[in-house]
Amino acid sequence: MGYTYVMSDIHGMGALLEEMLEKISFSEDDVLYILGDMIDRGPDPAKVLDIASSCGNIIPLKGNHEDEFVSWYDNEISRMFQKYYYNTYDILMDSERTREKLPEYVSFMKSLPLYKKIKRDGGCFLLAHASTEEILQVWKRKERLIWDTSMVDRKKGIPGYVSIVGHVPTFVIRGFSKAPATIWHSADDRLIVVDCGAAFPELGGRLGCLCLETREEFYVSAGHGME
């Protein structure tokens, strides 16, 4: 039986994703959940999308950046007169291969689920990009799942569950310390933030990955290779 891993906010850092998969010795027996924001900011969103869409044991969720990109792309008027405000579209249009795959990438991002609820080792984990509170509601509002920071602001999770989110880089939670960013845990360990700001190495950001079974944390940084 393999391991279950969680990471978030890769933000186009395709080389870091490859390094992380190598570092954790990711195999077909393992499962990796990516909690959204695979695109924008970094130089290689195509590599991230290619990896995430081609591996059956990688389960990506939708983040606000995927949602915004799809909404912009689907609006022909916006696409014609309003430039996409991050670099993903320009990068994907810059080569023939990724330009031809663009509709496929958009379809993939549209298909992403907003949340997952999983059980491991007798515990129940709630996974979403920004907030997991909506998972337990009858009517689940997309905006809260991909945008809401109130759980991180309160620094509290949900009794009886372990919530894992991204969206807010952990160096922000720790007051913009220049030390290398690490995965953040609330005092009662009911809330875990795995966005370590991979696209912001100048702020100590790096890509973090958490193993649910062992609680081991793994990190790789841009320009520094594996750590």
UniProtKB/TrEMBL annotation:
SUPFAM superfamilies: Metallo-dependent phosphatases (SSF56300). InterPro entries: Ap4A_hydrolase (IPR050126), Calcineurin-like_PHP (IPR004843), Metallo-depent_PP-like (IPR029052). Gene3D superfamilies: 3.60.21.10. Residues 5-131 form the Calcineurin-like phosphoesterase domain. One of its GO terms (molecular function) is phosphatase activity. One of its GO terms (cellular component) is cytoplasm. PANTHER family: METALLOPHOSPHOESTERASE (PTHR42850), ZINC-DEPENDENT ENDOPOLYPHOSPHATASE (PTHR42850:SF4). This is Metallophosphoesterase. The lineage of its organism: Bacteria, Bacillati, Bacillota, Clostridia, Lachnospirales.
